[in-house]
Prior knowledge:
The protein is mostly helical. It has helices at 5-32, 43-57, 59-67, 83-92, 97-120, 125-136, 143-146, 151-173, 177-192, 206-209, 227-238, 250-273, 291-298, 302-326, 330-357, 362-365, 371-388, 393-418; strands at 282-283, 287-288. The chain has a two-stranded antiparallel sheet with strand order 1-2. Helix 5 (97-120) packs antiparallel against helix 6 (125-136), helix 6 (125-136) packs antiparallel against helix 17 (371-388) and helix 15 packs antiparallel against helix 17 (371-388).
Amino acid sequence: MDSTPGMQASGWRRYGAPIYFAVLLAALLVVFLPSFSHPPRSDYWSAFYVFEQASAAGGLSGLASILTFDLWEHGTYRPLSHLIPYLEHLLFSPRFVWNHVLNFAAYFLSIVLLYLLAGRLGLDRGLAAVFLALFAFLYSHSDIVVWTFQFFTIISFGAFLLGFILYIDYLRSGRGALLLAVGALFLFGMLTLEVYALWPLAIFILPFALPSPRRRFRWRDAAPLLVYPFYLGGWLLHRGTTGELPSPTAGQLATGFLLVFFNLAYTGFAVNIVPSLSRPLYLDDNINMGGWAWRLEEAERLDFTVAWMGGAVLLLLLLGAWCLYRKGRHRLLVLLSLFFFLYLTDFFIAGTARITSDRAFYPLVQFRYQYVPNAFLALMLAAALGGILKPRTRGKAIIGLILIPVLVFNMSLGRRQIA
């Protein structure tokens, strides 16, 4: 008897997905296990001093010093971000290997959640698996797995992914109790890292991106947005306790916006396909990518290049969106818009904030800023190829084979840097 597509999907979920993730986990350990012996670095050394002070003070005074800790006094609003490594410090110090274990586990879990979100949104599971496997080893964000101080970035990202998954489950089942969990996850994510502050607004796009017809909007569907009064109230209490960033000028806002599109082309495609373009690395208080972006900065031509290249990419994306609309690929257009909204708001907020306190090249060369953009680029590619080409098994295998050299290049470079 011939197997139907539904039976094939069920078989993949039962057998293929667990095997896929087991192999992926083993491969990730091959690359990143040597980093488990790495000592703390960079921001950790200043943080340790504050952690010890907080432990000595005890009570609310000690907790307040953790919630308002801002290493560079940039006026950040992420009260939970340093509470997380502080709890790790209390639990594990000086057994730092467990910080590595937790950070690695959170990274792996984020890949699982991306795969589950892709499935909920109707992406082809095979293509999602292929592009997420590539994402897992991309050199351009590999340092986030090694630099355990960024644990809060990974788990706050995971909180939002789980929140989106549960919100889709709510839309399908109508179970109002899920909205409480969604709101709690959104609030946790925003209080841990402010670059996610606009992500709850994605619930206005999510219903239209689902593969099944959506019901009419109900007011309670917007219940997760009730986290904003709590978030903003906390910001008012927190404001002024950690320094303050200068307000961005109109020119800096424009540069931050175009930097999103420049990053999509430069890091998203060029560096991820040929990661050696980001080398040689350079060191300050951290490890940074160098390469072309650094040379443009040294030649004082980065802002000009960001303007024309970012503008060109923006025009190409608008043209692509218009073509999809004209061809009636409305759900695919909405799906890509959802992923790009999350990509854009994350990198725009991070990039603009860095421009006001540093220079435009900074978010391009620090590995951590590429983690979330790379994740949504992987989902955008899986959605676009699945929706436009609709490849069968052979087609997916060909795509996988084409990506193998890119995967090997990224894995080998990452492994060599870690070792």
